[in-house]
Design a protein that fits this description.
Layout: H1 3-47, E1 53-74, E2 77-91, E3 97-103, H2 106-112, H3 130-143, E4 149-155, E5 158-163, H4 170-207
Parallel strand pairs: 3-5
Antiparallel strand pairs: 1-2, 1-4, 2-3, 4-5
């Protein structure tokens, strides 16, 4: 095998590996875009949390609704936590006082803000053991219990719901989509480039002649060269010539007189 053909085959195999790598990275970037879109961008866009303004909230009432919300705590793990609803009063742009329901962040607002009152849970904690979930919810209620004053955020167009903290900023949302999109674009371009290089290498490889090593066995007229490690096939036996049989020597006429009729 010539050096040029060996190099071409090596390049072809390398391109195939790079194509597989590129497709894997494209898939990872696509998954990252979907996950960031669902976890970060969706709550921010649907709640307009970037338009929330700072204000001061005072809790007027915090109580357990009596409803347990089911949640997943891992693989093959299901649990539930008690729903804590917190009512607050807060200031507005016109120096007025408004009443609203408090949520821990925009994810809680996006997930529970549109539900019934007994499902408008201020916080969520999902542990395998329900008693731990209850303790965590009670600790949150102690921190933001009745009479407590703290900073919060509200939307000027909807003063009925507030959040304690903004989980994602504009920068977080921007970068969560920017870098996965850049990675998706770059690896897509690289994968297309690797496919083109692989196509060129395959086309060149098919055009190169196969060099026979001097001294290697070659085919001769009338002979079959078996592959290495195999055995030559045995020649087919020649057909045996048919022997003519005396028509009078039959199983029905052992006396060689042919067929007899009564």
């Amino acid at each position: 095998m010539s050096d040029e053909r060996s190099k071409t085959i090596a390049k072809f195999n390398m391109c195939r590996c790079l194509i597989f790598f590129g497709l894997t990275m494209v898939a990872c970037a696509a998954v990252a875009i979907i996950v960031c879109g669902v976890v970060i961008v969706k709550p921010v866009v649907e709640t307009n949390s970037l338009e929330f303004e700072k204000t001061t909230c005072t809790t007027t009432k915090g109580y357990l609704t009596g409803k347990w919300i089911g949640c997943g705590c891992g693989k093959n793990c299901n649990s539930a936590y008690p729903c804590l609803r917190i009512l607050v009063t807060h200031g507005g742009q016109d120096s007025g006082t408004y009443s609203g329901v408090m949520f821990e962040n925009e994810q809680r607002l996006n997930g529970n803000g549109h539900l019934d009152e007994d499902s408008q849970c201020a916080t969520q904690h999902c542990d395998q053991y329900r008693n731990k979930n209850m303790d965590t919810v009670k600790a949150f209620n102690d921190t933001y219990g009745a009479g407590e004053t703290y900073g919060c955020l509200y939307h000027p167009d909807d003063t009925s719901k507030v959040i304690v903290k903004r989980l994602f900023t504009w920068d977080a949302m921007f970068h969560s989509m920017l870098w996965p999109c850049i990675a998706f674009f770059l690896f897509t371009v690289l994968t297309v480039f690797f496919c083109y290089q692989c196509y060129k290498a395959g086309k060149k490889m098919s055009s190169l002649p196969i060099t026979v090593v001097p001294g290697a066995p070659a085919a001769q007229p009338g002979y079959f060269i078996p592959p290495q490690g195999g055995q030559a096939r045995a020649q087919y036996p020649q057909a045996m010539p048919m022997q003519q049989q005396d028509p009078y020597k039959t199983a029905y006429a052992p006396d060689n007189k042919g067929y007899t009729y009564n």
